[in-house]
TrEMBL record:
<dbReference type="Pfam" id="PF16010">
    <property type="entry name" value="CDH-cyt"/>
</dbReference>
<protein>
    <submittedName>
        <fullName>CBD9-like protein</fullName>
    </submittedName>
</protein>
<dbReference type="InterPro" id="IPR053208">
    <property type="entry name" value="GMC_Oxidoreductase_CD"/>
</dbReference>
<feature type="signal peptide">
    <location>
        <begin position="1"/>
        <end position="18"/>
    </location>
</feature>
<feature type="domain" description="Cellobiose dehydrogenase-like cytochrome">
    <location>
        <begin position="25"/>
        <end position="197"/>
    </location>
</feature>
<dbReference type="InterPro" id="IPR015920">
    <property type="entry name" value="Cellobiose_DH-like_cyt"/>
</dbReference>
<keyword id="KW-0732">Signal</keyword>
Length: 204
């Protein structure tokens, strides 16, 4: 009886890990391949890395049109690490870098890192929206980014149904993440891509 209970718990834990693990995903309009996590809500967050560790990475956030904003965190918890958030604004998408110091609407990040959108993978339509970007300098500071030479690591995700009041402002406040939030088991080794330099060159 005890053995069967242990096996059942192990199976549940393994299933939970698999459900939050990244898998290959190619964004159809840009052609960029990511290691991405997709939630049952339709939320998706992916990363692509250069073959040799650097300070930048290419990221992807997408969600159904019913999702007002979505974010990907460079660590498993909301507080401390860089948070990339995005939301649709008409036919375009606004991206913003944040860093939370407590569990409330995270303020804009004031460091040197920048988001540079990749036009082919950034759009909004009646069914969903997509934000594909170069996160320039986001891994330069290990205090706010994930370890750029690690084979794997935990990231975070969050999404809210209510869009920011001022959709045009990258500094707009964010509503509670009532669509969902949690951690992601990211495979950084598999995120390294030989096409990275060509993809990064498309960033505005």
């Amino acid at each position: 009886m005890l053995l069967s209970s242990i096996v059942a718990v192990f199976a549940l834990c393994t299933s939970a890990l698999a459900q939050r693990a990244t898998a290959p995903f190619t964004e159809p309009k840009s052609g960029i391949t990511f290691q991405a996590y997709k939630h049952t809500s339709g939320y998706q967050f992916g990363i692509a890395l250069p073959p040799k560790p650097g300070n930048d990475f290419i990221g992807h956030l997408s969600a159904p049109a019913s999702v007002g904003w979505a974010g990907g965190d460079l660590g498993p918890k909301m507080v401390g690490k860089l948070l990339i958030v995005a939301w649709p604004n008409g036919g375009s998408v606004v991206g913003s870098l944040r860093r939370a110091t407590r569990k409330s609407s995270p303020p804009p990040y004031t460091g040197a890192a920048k988001l540079k959108p990749i036009a082919a993978g950034t759009y909004a339509n009646a069914s969903h929206w997509s934000y594909t970007f170069l996160c320039e300098g986001c891994l330069a500071d290990p205090a706010v980014g994930f370890a750029k030479d690690a084979p794997a690591g935990d990231l975070g995700w969050a999404a809210g149904a209510r869009a920011p009041a001022d959709k045009a402002s990258a500094n707009a406040g964010l509503s509670y993440h009532n669509v969902g939030a949690g951690s992601i088991q990211a495979n950084f080794a598999q995120a390294k891509a030989t096409g990275y330099d060509a993809w990064a060159a498309k960033a505005a």
